[in-house]
Design brief:
The protein is globular and about 60 Å long. The protein has two domains: 2-104, Alpha-Beta Plaits; 108-249, Pseudouridine synthase I, catalytic domain, C-terminal subdomain (Alpha-Beta Plaits, 2-Layer Sandwich), CATH 3.30.70.660. The protein has helices at 27-39, 72-83, 137-147, 203-215, 223-230, and strands at 2-10, 45-47, 56-66, 87-94, 107-116, 129-131, 149-152, 174-186, 189-196, 245-251. It has 259 residues and is an alpha+beta fold. Strands 1, 2, 3, 4, 5, 6, 7, 8, 9 and 10 form a ten-stranded mixed β-sheet that branches. α1 crosses α2 (72-83) and α3 (137-147) packs parallel to α5. The two termini are 15 Å apart.
């Protein structure tokens, strides 16, 4: 067996999240089912991040052990024939033996798209959150400053169940955000890009929900820092809808792993 690495894109609204969940169709079950059909053996995959139901992926990275006789170029075509068009393997490479899609990752970046226009765009219904009231982009940009750096993001994360902790240890909500910014792409399309060493559950969607309240004038930009310091989830806004969110890219040190 030999370690392989794949970059996977998927349209999240077609699935009940990434991770395998008995009784429902997920990205992982879709992919492992195709691998089983092609290779006639069960393959366990590890993902860089577990996206929720409805969240899309463009740069999701998965690692797995495959028979060393596999031709990855041929396998990629076979998987895309079986999984496409909603799940697509963009790249497939052999990796270092110790490469791990999750634990080798140095950072992840997410992208959230908002359509800020009086009229919806039917071609963006499944990939952007439509906000018809005008947003103050400058206020949203100012609020980004408070997010950057290392903070406890308890105010923006769903607290994990006790069983989700590791070895009974308290789950930390501290994350290091390297970059966060809002951009106007024109035609009413606004894009939020955020990069961090890791994200806790619903962190990006909760941040976006609060940014939108700031953009609508319901909160001042200074509220963002106050919310972070408070650690109180009840003070932050409701989470933004999942369909505007996309796992955009995963970074690795000097991007090793490809042989």
């Amino acid at each position: 067996m030999r370690r392989a690495r794949m970059t996977v894109a998927y349209k999240g609204d077609a699935f009940h999240g990434f991770a395998t969940n008995p009784g429902v169709d997920t990205v992982e079950s879709h992919l492992t089912g195709a691998l089983r059909q092609v290779l006639q053996v069960d393959i366990n995959i590890v993902a860089a991040g577990r996206t929720d139901a409805g969240v899309h992926g463009w740069g999701q990275v998965v690692s797995m052990d495959l028979p060393d006789t596999v031709d990855l170029a041929v396998l990629r075509k076979q998987l895309n024939a079986l999984c496409g068009p909603f799940v697509v393997v963009r790249e497939a490479d052999w990796a270092e033996p110790d490469f791990h899609a999750r634990f080798s990752a140095m950072w992840r970046s997410y992208r959230y798209t908002v359509l800020n226009s009086p009229v919806p765009n039917p071609f963006m219904v499944e990939t952007a959150w439509h906000i018809h009231s005008p947003l103050k982009l400058r206020a949203m940009q100012l609020a980004c400053d408070a997010v950057i750096g290392e903070h406890d993001f308890s105010a923006f994360c769903r607290k994990p169940k006790p069983s989700e902790g590791e070895h009974g240890a308290e789950f930390s909500m501290r994350r290091y955000v390297m970059n966060a910014d809002w951009r106007d792409l024109g035609d009413g399309v606004l894009r939020f890009d955020v990069r961090a060493n890791a994200f806790c559950h619903q962190m990006v969607r909760s941040l976006v929900g609060t940014f939108i309240e700031i953009g609508l004038g319901k909160r001042p930009p200074s509220d963002m820092r106050g919310l972070i310091l408070s650690g109180d989830r009840n003070q932050a806004a409701q989470v933004a809808p999942p369909h505007g969110l996309c796992l955009w890219e995963v970074g690795y040190p000097a991007d090793p792993g490809r042989l």
